[in-house]
From TrEMBL:
Residues 57-391 form the Sulfatase N-terminal domain. GO terms for molecular function: metal ion binding; N-acetylglucosamine-6-sulfatase activity. The keyword S-adenosyl-L-methionine does not apply. Keywords: Calcium, Glycoprotein, Hydrolase, Lysosome, Metal-binding, Signal. The conversion to 3-oxoalanine (also known as C-formylglycine, FGly), of a serine or cysteine residue in prokaryotes and of a cysteine residue in eukaryotes, is critical for catalytic activity. It comes from the Eukaryota. CDD domains: G6S. It is found in: Lysosome. This is N-acetylglucosamine-6-sulfatase. Belongs to the sulfatase family. Its EC number is 3.1.6.14. The modification 3-oxoalanine (Cys) is found at residue 101. The gene is LOC100551899. GO terms for biological process: glycosaminoglycan metabolic process.
């Protein structure tokens, strides 16, 4: 859409905002304790030597759902932090390029920004796992390249939100690139779900020992490793945690009983000078809303304890099979989450740090233990990094991201790493013919009377996020106001003050031009 302009103190105006539209053995019950596992985990505390050979290395990706970083989302994962982060690298500035499940997971799979893979929301109409996606994007996902390089490939868990829909091939459709496929039909669940097991329907009920999805993924992955005829392999484990309905394993339902959502930063703060949707939130929140989000926060942590068990069990299996030292292990989430920030009780979909920052930890051959990196890493960098590990030339693909393997193993490109990147989101909930979406609307999971229609059509924005030389975020909205938000995150890390009307107009113009270039980028031009 073409910018209409608005009254400002200079001649600067927002640029052309491109809104893209597409064509067409279970854990045994027991009380949770942070200590017993230390003795077992100590067996794994043998990091591979720096500089170890990485040719034909195995790749394991653990991809969680809706797991934040900013609000303490990694706190429950003590074993994971020890076994991956302390024995490898932690990235303090890892980001999703869009804060919604299907577009973000599509970015991970393709290594592309949303304006290039054309998935704009979680619906079939928004190109989520659609026939168009299957025809034009799935052939260029990272497992396809790795399979051609001789990798045995295994996927278990949530894929894309509309996967398995009858209008998109049903459970019979096995995405390209996977030798062993165990894909969840639809969105995250813990019980009473359907899987596609290599194209065959597999229904599950509500018996913990047989059906709890996180543990089922764990057990199937252990069986795959046990039967593995030869490396190298690629494994992607995509558990439902910490997505709604936040169903913990029975033995973890009493964990964190006194925990509450963090009350600092922007919690329960009115979103002054922010876009129209944020200003609709009831502020201060009602006590019922705060009680609700506290329960959600606690339950999210409880579901992650089973993920922590997953990581430990899989790494123990790799160790026992002699495969751990030749395996790169990645841990991340598809995007962040909020619980009470700017008086929004629960959800994602916002441009702020709590929704776009994600955890990212990596261990593997040549990675020194206990390293922390400050370079901005994007979820579109995962695919290129996997291809780099496999020895495949990423420049031969349409991927927008770049491999961060050189950062991990030899630090050769630290000075030339990116300093800024693009964040995009296209609203989905209300019709484009209704520019005044009501405060409450369809599409918000687990909604209740105090929530806001966060998936409104005109909650559509694009941002440039830059970390160097200035820590800044610049965002333009595709709405009737051409609304702009700008944050100096050095002075204002919680993004409380929109300084769009106070900063030098030349800076606004510079950021506007950078945004226009980002929205038109593809492949190498996205990395320059």
């Amino acid at each position: 859409m073409t910018a209409r302009g608005s009254e400002r103190r200079s001649s600067w105006r927002p640029g052309s905002f491109s809104v893209f539209f597409p064509m067409g053995s279970p854990a045994k019950p027991g009380a949770w304790s942070p200590w017993p596992w230390l003795f077992l985990a100590a067996w794994l505390l043998n990091p591979p030597a720096a500089g170890a050979a990485r040719s034909r290395s195995n790749i394991l990706l653990v991809l969680t759902d809706d797991q934040d970083l900013q609000l303490g989302g990694m706190t429950p994962l003590k074993k994971t932090q020890l076994l991956i982060g302390q024995l490898g690298a932690t990235f303090a500035n890892a980001f999703a390029v869009t804060p919604l499940c299907c577009p973000s997971r599509s970015s991970i799979l393709t290594g592309c920004y949303p304006h290039n893979h054309l998935v704009r929301n979680n619906s079939l109409e928004g190109n989520c796992s659609s026939l168009v996606w299957q025809k034009f994007q799935e052939p260029y996902t990272f497992p396809v390249y790795l399979q051609k390089q001789g990798y045995q490939t295994f996927y278990a868990g949530k894929y894309l939100n509309q996967y398995g829909d009858p209008k998109a091939g049903g459970v019979q459709h096995v995405p390209l690139g996977w030798n062993y496929w165990l894909g969840l039909v639809g969105n995250s669940k813990y019980y009473n779900y359907t899987l596609s097991s290599n194209g065959r329907e597999e229904k599950h009920g509500d018996l913990y020992e047989e059906d709890y999805l996180t543990d089922l993924i764990t057990n199937r992955s252990l069986a795959f490793l046990q039967r593995l005829s030869r490396p190298p392999f690629l494994m992607v484990l995509a558990p439902p945690a910490s997505h709604s309905p936040w169903t913990a394993a029975p033995h973890y339902k009493s964990a964190f009983s006194t925990i509450k959502a963090p009350r600092n930063g922007s919690f329960n703060v009115y979103g002054k000078d922010k876009h129209w949707l944020i200003r609709q939130a009831k502020s201060p929140m009602l006590n019922t809303s705060i009680e609700f989000l506290d329960n959600v926060y606690r339950q999210r942590w409880q579901t992650l304890l089973s993920v922590d068990d997953m990581v430990e069990k899989v790494l123990l299996q790799l160790k026992s099979l002699g495969l751990l030292d030749s395996t790169y292990v990645f841990y991340t989430s598809d995007h962040g989450y909020h619980t009470g920030q700017f008086s929004l009780p629960i959800d994602k979909r916002q441009l702020y740090e709590f929704d776009i920052r994600v955890p990212l930890m990596v261990r593997g051959p040549g990675i020194k233990p206990n390293q922390t990196y400050l370079e901005p890493i994007l979820n579109i960098d995962l695919g290129p990094t996997f291809l780099d590990i496999a020895g495949f030339n990423v420049s031969l693909t349409p991927m927008d991201g770049q491999s961060f393997l050189p950062l991990l193993v030899n630090k050769t490109c630290r000075n030339g790493w990116r300093s800024d990147f693009l964040v995009q989101y296209t609203g989905e909930g209300c019709s484009s013919k209704d520019p005044y979406c009501p405060a409450l609307g369809p599409g918000v999971s687990q909604c209740f009377p105090d929530c806001v229609c966060e998936d409104a059509f005109n909650n559509t924005y694009a941002c440039v996020r830059t970390l160097h030389p200035i820590n800044l975020q610049y965002c333009e909205f595709a709405d009737a106001q051409d609304f702009v938000e700008v944050y100096n995150l050095t002075a204002d890390p919680h993004q409380l003050l929109n300084v769009a009307k106070a900063v030098d107009p030349s800076l606004l113009e510079q950021m506007n031009q950078r945004l226009i270039k980002f929205q038109a980028c593809s492949g190498p031009s996205c990395r320059s």
